[in-house]
Amino acid sequence: MQPHQERVVVERAELSEKTEKLWQFISGNQIFFTLPSDEQSRLGRQHTHMKAYLAVLDERIAAF
Questions:
Q1: How confident is the model at residue 17 (pLDDT cuts 50, 70, 90)?
Q2: Could you tell me how far CA 32 lies from the centroid of its own chain?
Q3: Domain count along the chain
Q4: Residue 47 backbone dihedrals phi, psi, to 5 degrees
Q5: φ, ψ at 63 (rounded to 5°)
Q6: In whole angstroms, what is the distance from residue 15 CA to residue 17 CA?
Q7: Which is nearest to 54 in space by CA: 4, 22, 27, 19?
Q8: What band does 20 get if pLDDT is binned at 50, 70 and 90?
Q9: Which of 19, 26, 23 is nearest to 55 (CA)?
Q10: Exposed (0-12), middle (13-18) or buried (19+): which is 32, by Cβ within 10 Å?
């Protein structure tokens, strides 16, 4: 694997971990529900975008 490809794999792993942690916060942490609804919405949108970013990285890795 080329160095730039290895960086994509590492980036994907890091993003996957962050995405999972955000999901755990959104879906199971009582603190989330104490946040203002606007902030809850922003965090939800952030999670959606992170999943889309993961999908792009998955496509790139599959194309190696």
A1: very high
A2: 17
A3: 1
A4: -60, -40
A5: -85, -5
A6: 5
A7: 19
A8: very high
A9: 19
A10: middle
pLDDT band for position 24 (cuts 50, 70, 90): very high
- Encode pLDDT of 27-61 as tens digits: 999 999 999 999 999 999 999 999 999 999 999 99
- DSSP SS3 for 1: coil
Q: Within 1-64, where are the H helices?
A: 3-28, 30-34, 37-62
Domain hosting 33: range is 3-62
Q: Is 49 exposed, middle or buried (0-12, 13-18, 19+ CB in 10 A)?
A: exposed
26 in Cβ contact with 44 (< 8 Å): yes
Tokens of 49: 């975008």
CB contact at 8 A, 40 and 19: no
